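Dear colleague,

Following up on Tuesday's group meeting, I ran the structure prediction for the two-component complex that the binding team flagged. I've pasted the input sequences exactly as they went in, so you can double-check that nothing got truncated or mislabelled along the way. The structure tokens for the whole assembly follow below. Feel free to forward this to whoever is handling the docking comparison.

Inputs:
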Amino acid sequence: MTAQLARQARRTTIIFWVITALFVTQMGWWIYFQLKYGGEELAVAEEMLNRQPQLAADGWQRQIDRWSDSLRGAWQDFRVNTLRSSHTANLEGWSRMVFDGESGRQLIGIRRPDSLGTAGRVQVPIADGMVTILIQGTTVQKFLSRDFPGIRYVGADDTLNLSANVVTPATLQVDQSADEELIDRRRRRMRMFIAEGSFFIVLIIAGAVVIHRALRRTAEFEHRQQNFLAAVTHELKAPLASIRLFAETLASRDLPEAKRQECLGRISQDVERLHGLIDDILDAGIFSRRTFQSKLEESDLSAILKTVVEHHRPRAERARLAVREDIPAAVRVMVDESHMRRALEAIIDNAIKYSRTDGPRGEIDIALKSDNGEAVITVADQGIGLDERDQKRVFERFFRAGDELTRNVNGSGLGLYLAREIIRTHKGKISLWSGGPGRGTTVEIRLPLKS
Amino acid sequence: MDKTILIVEDEEHIAEGLQLNLEMEGYKTIVAADGKTALDLYRTTPIDLILLDVMLPGLSGYDVCREIRREAGRVPILFLTAKGEEDDRILGLEAGGDDYIPKPFSLKELLLRIMAIFRRQAWFATPGSVADEYRFGGNVMNFKTFIGRGPRGEVVLTRKECMMLKFLAEHPNEVISRDMILDGVWGYHAYPTTRTIDNFVLRLRKHFEIDPAEPKMFLTVFGAGYKFVPPDAA
């Protein structure tokens, strides 16, 4: 049963952490991609922005190429030579292009120098909406104007205007400010992604931890309660079984008087045991209430402690334990006597129960002293002790160390819990330590002295 | 009657009361307060029945029972325990217990059950209509050695499984109600629950059916009980 619960809890935990890990990985990838590719994208955009003028110049170059292409096409129509233009563009001042001499001839595809004249030049002034090419030279104009519809003869004999649609540098120029804004926006978005992603990761992990803790706590509580139920079931049923057994024996058998008395004695002992356990359970209910308060009155702690020790001495003797006490007279504190007795009983009862019965005769040391305005009670046994993990948990309700099936010792898991609750209402402190399994346990109670 | 009963119980009073009553009934008794002592006593003394508490210091009752069965011990074991939930009952039976009585038990019922265990043991030990070496559908079961051979090789049955198989073999091709099985194998009605019978049938299927999920011999008859159909007996 317990193993099954533990397995279930472990499975839940594993599933839970796998899901969490998946979430975190996903978020991690997201951020990684943002950092890597988001950054790259940004870099490209920035670079584009830096290269704007260069790109504009490139644009012009292409434009000029197109013009020369169309011019070449025109000359082709004239069946004049086709030449690949190898002009050099002079973009100085952005106002016009001048193709001198050879390059000018090449532009319009005239091979012979005298066609343009030795000093012939082709000018390409740049203006909105139109490009005018002035050809200074000889006699080809009329061919041009007649057979090339895109080229219009406008001026003097030796000049020719070619018109074509032009994109001016003004429109070629990209609006840099808009781009910068875009990049800025992109950069902001990226930062936000990363911040958001990190926030989510932190949130998921925090949530995971919180949920995991809550789950574990619930599982632990359930486990403890189950433990408690198992323990209480056993604790209640064992004396009950014994009572029933002896009662039925008495009813059905003809026993000699001595045997009868023995059976009756067993019955009343078991009734006592049941009574104690039921008290524990009921008290746990009462003491755990927030409003629970002890009625504190000035009393002698020594007397209370001595009474409890004497009450337990016969049991200790039966368990072959020596009880050594070091209790000075009259240590006055504010206590609720019945509650304090209950707490002390629980602790001394534990010291007897958890002493070793296999080794040499054990000892229990019980001492009371005044220290720094506090009354300090210590109860030390040489018993089975506790490992470090269990030491932290002994005051928890229903907590019991060890395995429920093979536990040596009867108990409800309530004794130390009750003791802590009682000491708390006395404004005192209770602590426990052990040298480890097999090395004994010491419980210390500190209560404020009545000044 | 010269039967020896080992009482394994850490509650002094209960052990004492049991001892008193069992001795008045004419049984010999030995008491062990923990599992280790019980095992030592079992190994050194001839014992006819063990009354075994589950919650024991050191070794639990289940552990003791398992260990005895592991050593091929076939002494009947009657669990006594404060844990009376279905799961715990099944755990006890799986560990190899023959019966299970929850605390606080009635003295009369306990004595009846002990008597029933001894009576059924006597029935089991007398050769009846079924041979000691029983063959059915390619399986063999020896009721003396508790060792058989199923479709998956050798199987070792517990005493109760053997008794159940023998009971079924004595009534082939009959519809047998769960109550009849209780009467025949356990010897009384009060316990175990009919669910436990189902558990035993499942285990017989696991031992002897070629496909335990598709039983051909140990059949369930809905609303009535079970029917044992050995192929060669038909």
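Residues 107-125 of chain B form the longest helix (19 residues).

Cheers,
M.
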